[in-house]
Amino acid sequence: MNCSQARDRIRAHLAGGGDSAYAGVDPAAAEHLRQCELCRHWQFDELLRHELGHDEVPEPRAGFVDDLIQTATIQGERRRSPRFSIAAALAAAAVALALLVGNVLDGDGFGDDSYHVAVAPHIAEFVEVVIDAGAGRNEATLTIELADNLELDGFPNERVISWQTQLTEGKNLLRLPLILKDESDSEFNVDLSYGSTRKAITVMVRANDPDTTHSRVRA
Amino acid sequence: MLSGRKDRAQQFDALIRPHVMPMYHTAYRLLRNAEDAEDLVQDVMTKLYPRLDDMAQVEALRPWLLRVVYHSYVDFLRRLDRSPKTLADENSLHAVADETSRPDTWSENEQLSSLLGDAVARLPEEQRALVDLHLVQGYTLQELASAFETPLGTLKAQVHRIKGKLRKELADATFSSV
Hints:
A: five-stranded mixed sheet, elongated, disordered C terminus
């Protein structure tokens, strides 16, 4: 008996409700298993798949799929409407920044330099920028300037986004939900100004490949 | 404008509907709670709708959506102030024996299914989710590596170790019952 024949018999046995790959299987298939290491590995995967298949997922509530699509459509239309999304998203960004002020992360100072980060294309990925402020600033202005193939989630087609915020003394975390719209390299600038002081960094963005561990910029 | 919205809604429906239940299954495997899984999928879909144009250009939507679900899962746990489970954490596997078991022994045991079921039930949730996504839901290791942002070699080693651990438990249980 060859591998294909043995596997067909074992598969049929499992499909028929057999509780092991051996019990009830004809002796030739069982003998093949003893002789063939590849088939024993295959058999184990089949058994594991069989057992995991018993771990049932509970059914969601009735109308789940229709409800989700309808809700996503309504809420999604609101998000993509410029009249609402700009104000709401800017407010959300400011709130998020305020909430995250004081988070202590390892980082260097906010200097005039270039940094590199890798993100997956086509989906929103957070890139974190740590702003190390020497003193608290009540009216700091943050400006994000994006290359053409980059955008912030919630700000479709916005190349320059600017808002005022507060900085506390020490490290302030800015989390930017970046979307790289294609597989080519990109970049964005973060510009911080308060009073007559202005500092900026450039962050180079490249598309992540599957074998690359995600990284975040610490500026 | 209204017809544009209607067209978008129909396009979104056509693209996403076949994937809603698979996304829910994945979310449940990760969270082990139906209500949380429903919330997670709702959150994912609401984020996806504005990205309809991008979605329409994705060739392999299923693994792409897995990645989106996994990212949302990590964010979801952070919002709940729970540490995200790392599906590809080698440290959690250090204690796992990576040795060849005695398949001739466990394959002949009629209680194999029960033993294996018990061993699977004892796996940490994140490990069970990983092998489930691979063996039951059919994601390739390449797709999973991409979704979890883990090097492919690392993920292969982890799956190998999880299987090794299960084989060892079966072998040990068989020996002890003899």
